[in-house]
Amino acid sequence: MKRLIIVSNRLPITVTRNKKNSPLEFHSSIGGLSTGLSSFYKSYNALWIGWPGIALDRIKEEDKENITKKLSHEGCYPVFLTQREIDNYYHGFCNNVLWPLFHYFPSYVTNKSVFWGAYNEVNHKFADAVMQFADKDDVIWVHDYQLMLLPDMLRRRLKNINIGFFLHIPFPSFEIFRMLPYRKEILQGVMGANLIGFHTYDYVRYFLESVRRILGIDSNLGYIYSHKYDEHIVKADIFPIGINFEKFRTPNEEIEDEIENIKNKIGNSKVILSVDRLDYSKGIMHKLEAFDRFLDKNPKYIGKVILVVLVVPSRTNIEHYRMLKKQIDELIGNINGKRSTFEWFPIYYLYRSLPFEKLLALYRISNIALITPLRDGMNLVAKEFLASKQDNKGVLILSEMAGAAQELGEAVIINPNDANEIVKALELALNMPDTEQIKRNKTMINRLKQYNIIKWTTDFMRAMDDVRKLQGKFFMRILNADSEKKMIDNYKNSNNRVLLLDYDGTLVEFAASPKEAEPDDDLLEILKKLSSDTRNNVVIISGRDRKTLDEWFGNLNIGLIAEHGVWIKHKGDNWQTIEPLTNEWKKVVTPILELYMDRTPGSFIEEKEFSLVWHYRKADSQLAAVRAMELKDTLIDYVTNLKLEVMDGNKVLEIKDAGVDKGKASLKCVTDINKDFILAIGDDLTDENIFSVLPEDTYSIKVGMGYSKAKYNVLSTKDVRILLKKLINEGE
Ligand code: GDG
């Protein structure tokens, strides 16, 4: 039976030891991921692998055994880290490099050369731990920025295993991500997964853009089909994390006293609540400053509102966190010092972590939650605050920079950098009628109830399954040993064969500019050998012009089809056009293409005898995609009047006579004589015309994983060459 293996930096249980020889203590970990998943993972057949939070240097061998044993009762397995690893991997690369960069604080990045090595080593350590347990049918779910290399490490060791990766923090825009020195390795690491999840659509877009611009790999509706990734399909999609809704919703008698207690202390004041881990990304200073300004502008609220600020200690051995703590202490001191009276002070400040019941009591008692991160992957506090409101009353003020804002549109959404906007939001919230609060909250609460943490997990796991199934479907189409053998036998026994081979993307990889993709010696040797067999009619069927094809293949005894079927040259014969064609239309279309070339830096025009091609491979891909659509639109009228066709190729738009295509041209090579073996190989849309017109018993092969009318797929140009060599060697 398949098992779920969750892998994250921290386990849901943290082990601590106060003094050198004092006993070990086991607590629940605090943080978004632990709070979310720990509540239900035990109900799965699951194992959770992670660091238990204590340095190896602080425990003895027998402690290690004790910890491992105790954790195993909780379905957990510890990966122990030394103090050096914690310093260089966790505090180092994770929290001094990735965290600030991914939260748009590039100036907070402090990179040391040892950090990257440690990040690699620790990811390997996790991979070793997973390998102790993983079975080929298991599902492995890797979490967050600390383990971005792990999916690929696992993929290399367990080729066919199902791996998911979820990023809990934002994935930054390309302009930020490109600053990372190890950007390529990080992307390659994550791409080892079958499914890559993010909280919002923007993060998905930024990730896919980085993959395209840094790794040069395109995606289609979130799918990446690239043989470069060890023959697996990768899908990137959104899975906004939910909360354990019922835990926050259900009546809890234990907290009634707590609520009474707080009420007695604060009297009738309205409570504004702020809950954050100590982190510069959470905008704590911004909110304090805005609150101060709010009191300046609204003296009538003096003595009538209080702000409860709960800051949970975090990463205090990093300089920026220590500084932030100091700044918060000082600012709260200033505001309270300046404004307190003997009866009232504006800010209750708690710098510690509270037990769950106390936190819940705070949520329930508060009238407003003020959540102002400058960047936040999701922000669970926003969701928990709403869920805890059993009477559906309360106002959520939420930063638009939190992933949660995408789902909680009925909240009062603010830009945390605009103090005036926060002030206005507070004024609005304090005056919002109950009916409106309830109306806004009901919609959001319903959503939180529906898309809770269990739904989030099951959704992610279902999507992992779907990607695998899709992959399975593709693999069924891949030319397997049996079909290959049948093809070779058939080839051997036939005397009249046609081999129709597309060139770019089929026999050679795409190059940045068309001229760079010249045939190499290995390919020329293959074509020479194939064509030296008198039973073979080898035809290169390409979009290239006939001059280039002549230059490259003129010496070989093969047939050539140029410009997607405008020109044909049967072997040993001269070039001729397939249809009588004219060029008059070029006068009209060229100026339009030139305009688009000027407006799209990096794009250029190629003129062939009977067609014009606009190439945009080297242009900015987003701009080019928009321009390509505009260009197609502009050309619509001309297309009908001048009987032209605008053809989408691989990063090109080709304009040519509507009566010409590769399909029609390929029929010129097979219909006149009775052929008993036909092989057609191609990789892009223009080759689909060939696959659709050839006889039923053709061996048609698409290069790459996408959908096709061809019967089989092979993964790469390398595989095409291997196949052709087999025909040469075994087909004698
Ligand atoms: C990362 C991403 C993303 C807080 N104080 C106490 C306490 N908490 C709990 C809250 C909440 C969790 O900690 C904090 O979660 P957040 O989502 O706000 O933030 P991160 O820890 O930074 O989490 C974040 C999350 O991952 C999930 O994907 O939302 O964007 O940065 O659950 O309840 N819990 C207790 N006492 C406290 O004093 N018991």
Layout of helices and strands, plus pairs?
Elements lengths: L3 E7 L2 E4 L8 E4 L3 H7 L7 E6 L9 H13 L2 E3 L4 H20 L10 H21 L5 E5 L6 H8 L4 E5 L7 H4 L5 H8 L4 E4 L2 H15 L7 E3 L7 E6 L6 H5 L4 H13 L3 E8 L6 H14 L7 E8 L6 H21 L7 E5 L4 H10 L2 E4 L8 H9 L6 E5 L12 E3 L4 H12 L3 H17 L2 H25 L3 H12 L4 E5 L19 H12 L3 E6 L4 H8 L5 E4 L4 E3 L6 E2 L8 H14 L4 E4 L3 E5 L5 H22 L1 E5 L3 E6 L4 H9 L6 E6 L2 H9 L5 E5 L8 E3 L2 H14 L2
Parallel strand pairs: 1-4, 1-6, 4-5, 6-7, 7-8, 8-10, 11-12, 11-14, 12-13, 14-15, 15-16, 17-18, 17-26, 18-19, 26-27, 27-28
Antiparallel strand pairs: 2-3, 9-10, 19-20, 20-21, 22-23, 23-25, 24-25
Helix pairs in contact: 3-4, 4-5, 7-8, 10-13, 11-12, 11-15, 18-25, 19-25, 21-22, 23-24
Bound molecules: GDP-alpha-D-glucose.
**Any idea of the CATH topology of the largest domain?**
Rossmann fold
Instruction: Enumerate the spans where pLDDT stays under 50 for 5 or more consecutive residues.
Output: none
Q: Name the CATH homologous superfamily of the largest domain.
A: Glycogen Phosphorylase B
Distance from N terminus to C terminus (CA atoms, Å) equals 48 Å
How does this structure look, described?
By secondary structure, the protein is an alpha/beta fold. It has 4 domains: 4-238, Glycogen Phosphorylase B (Rossmann fold); 246-450, Rossmann fold; 477-579 and 660-731, HAD superfamily/HAD-like (Rossmann fold), CATH 3.40.50.1000; 586-657, Alpha-Beta Plaits (2-Layer Sandwich). An 8-stranded mixed β-sheet has the order 5-4-1-6-7-8-10-9, with helices on both faces. An 8-stranded mixed β-sheet has the order 21-20-19-18-17-26-27-28, with helices on both faces. Helix 3 packs across helix 4, helix 18 (481-492) packs across helix 25 and helix 23 runs parallel beside helix 24. It is elongated, with a radius of gyration of 32 Å. The model has no long low-confidence stretch (mean pLDDT 92). It binds GDP-alpha-D-glucose (GDG). GDP-alpha-D-glucose binds next to helix 1, strand 11, strand 12, helix 13 and helix 14. GDP-alpha-D-glucose is lined by residues 30-33, 35, 168-169, 241, 275, 277, 310, 312, 353-354, 356, 359, 376-381, 384.
